[in-house]
Design goal:
Layout (H helix, E strand, L loop, with lengths): L5 E8 L5 E8 H19 L3 H6 E7 L9 H15 L4 E10 L2 E11 L13 E13 L2 E9 L1 H7 L40 H18 L7 H4 E7 L9 H15 L4 E10 L2 E12 L12 E13 L5 E8 L1 H8 L1
InterPro entries: Cyclase_SnoaL-like, NTF2-like_dom_sf
Organism: Sphingobium algorifonticola
Protein name: Ester cyclase
Length: 333
Amino acid sequence: MAFVVQIVIRDRPCAGGRWRLFRTMTGSAIIHRLLRDQIERLWGQGEVDLVDANYAHDVVDHMPVPGQPGGLAGLKDVVRAFRAGLPDMRLRLHATLAAGDMGVDVWTLNGTHTGTLFGRPATERSVSFSGIDMVQVRDGRITALWHVEEMLHFEQQLGIVQESFGTPLKAVPVAATDDSAYEPGADAYVPGLSDFNAQEHRNLAIARTHIEELWAKGRHDLAWQLYAPDVVDHNPAPGQRPGIAGIVDVLGWLREAVPDLRMRIGCYVIDGNMVADRWTMTGTHNGAPLMGITPRGRRFTIAGMDVCRIGADGLITDVWHCEEFLKLRTQIA
């Protein structure tokens, strides 16, 4: 995909406060570099000076940590807090995507909780969890970011909560939503659409079917048309079976627990054989138990993101996904 506006970008400050000019890069190359810097250098190495170099002064974090100040200072505070709580943290960057003015990264963090983290004393426990970030870029700087991490899984590893997902009540999947007026992706932003090649147009259609029809509407029959037989879910639910059957299990558990589940897709980012989406989910927990919690008829709203790799045959081979399940647990408990 070609986002070919040429601009000159500036890297981090050099000695003496001067700026070192980088070579001219395409817009997509800038976004890929910003994402790599964000994960490998800012979070991975703790280079907080990159916040001033790579983010706009009025950057908006749409999913801040509770109590996080706005702007650049807030971003630096969160990085320092995590690195103080997990001094040996290491991040593996799985993929970066760029389209138009948007970018996405997906990563896994490993570390040991040997320091105080947001008021929690050290547990000396090892942790491993994943996250997905989406950014918007203007003039070579990140102006907005959305991010979802596996915080429920993280807190389970620290011994704070017991993690579970669902318990199927029925032997057959729940019927799909049949509301013809329900269009979960009607307002989705698709950056760089006019520059897509044939592969990317095809993959956008696959991404829409995946999240809007399979997950938002519950059309479980589509799973065998969308996923490769050996599809890998890199973020499985506790006890989830491998392959397509396990993914359909999770879909069934969720829809049994939340019969009125609705989703609204905010954005798709398509880059070659990689696709990403960002969504909001709402519903009422009045069906089956969810996360070990008896239904109490409570409403919830959470956000999530998905990243998929699509093979040459049009089948999804890999899925990474992160949801605000800790927030969900808090809202329905």
